[in-house]
Amino acid sequence: MKILVTGSKGFIARNLIRRLKHEGNEVVGYDIKDSEYVDTIDFLTEFDFDGIDLIYHLGAISSTTEQDILKINHYNTWFSIELFKAAMMKEIPVVYASSGSVYGNTMDDGEYLINPLNYYAASKAMIDMWVTQNMHQLKFAVGLRFFNVYGNDEQKDDMSTSPIYRFAEQAKETGVIKIFKGSQYTHRDFVSVSDVVSSMLWARDKANPGIYDVGTGAPISFMDVAEMIADKYNATVKFVEMPAILHGKYQFYSKARPHVPLMYNTVEEWLKLN
User: Fold this and answer.
1) Do 145 and 57 belong together in one domain?
2) Are residues 31 and 116 in the same domain?
3) How far apart are CA 1 and CA 103, in angstroms?
4) Considering the entire predicted model, what is its pTM?
5) Number of structural domains, the chain?
6) Which of 5, 34, 93, 202 is the most buried (most CB within 10 A)?
7) Going residue by residue through the chain (274 aa), what tens digit of pLDDT does each one get?
8) Residues 160, 70: one domain?
9) For strand 26-30 and strand 2-6, is the pairing parallel, antiparallel, or unpaired?
């Protein structure tokens, strides 16, 4: 297969591309960070979609603290919708990255309402809404709501590194892991990037069109994660104040529903192997 991967320089995409190439696929990567196209508009108007068998759309501004709503709208919402329109015209299947952040803080009581707390999450909710309304016109579309992704090949210049990566870097560099006060009460669903990639291959091969949660379904606290990493690197844990920019925009609990029939590793299992 000839597969287009957007956001190809990003953390998840790098892992996906390695798996796709291992399968023997031809991968065409597009990333605004390193592209012959000046902007996403140029890419959409100049790229030759003929011969593309599948699109994995991962490109986005993923920072949950981004305050430029016009930038978010352009690079996340507008670009996604226009890319999907191109896929619609060429009858190309699409698997794209949504986010568990669209639920905000509605998961603790099991409601799973669309309640984004920041512009990034709002952009993902808008894209999901558009896909749902236009699903009948797309050849094939699957949205995957990734929860807190971590794992191999995270890098400091990735737009949003996981707490697991940041805690490990702090432990190795300073011997002190800094976490927000109250982190023992903040639970997230952490899912390894290798499991995320497996979910993306499942979406391509076995899923029905639709939007699915991707996570372990077993949230753990930031405190538990910090202590596991502290034990691994013989570090200590220090509490710090949450920055004001995160107030009202922070998920205190997330838990994916069991939409994808795969077995996922826990953070503890992953840390033992890496």
Assistant:
1) yes
2) yes
3) 34
4) 0.94
5) 2
6) 5
7) 999 999 999 999 999 999 999 999 999 999 988 777 768 889 999 999 999 999 999 999 998 889 999 999 999 999 999 999 999 999 999 999 999 999 999 998 889 999 999 999 999 999 999 999 999 999 999 999 999 999 999 988 776 889 999 999 999 999 999 999 989 999 999 999 999 999 999 999 999 999 999 999 999 999 999 999 999 999 999 999 988 777 777 789 999 999 999 999 999 999 999 8
8) no
9) parallel
In 3D, which of 189, 171, 186, 274 has the Cα closest to residue 231? 171
Do 85 and 164 sit in the same domain of this protein? no
Joined together, the tokens standing for residue 140 give 């094939």
* 172 shares its domain with 63: no
Q: Are residues 117 and 200 in the same domain?
A: yes
The token duo for 221 is: 């606290």
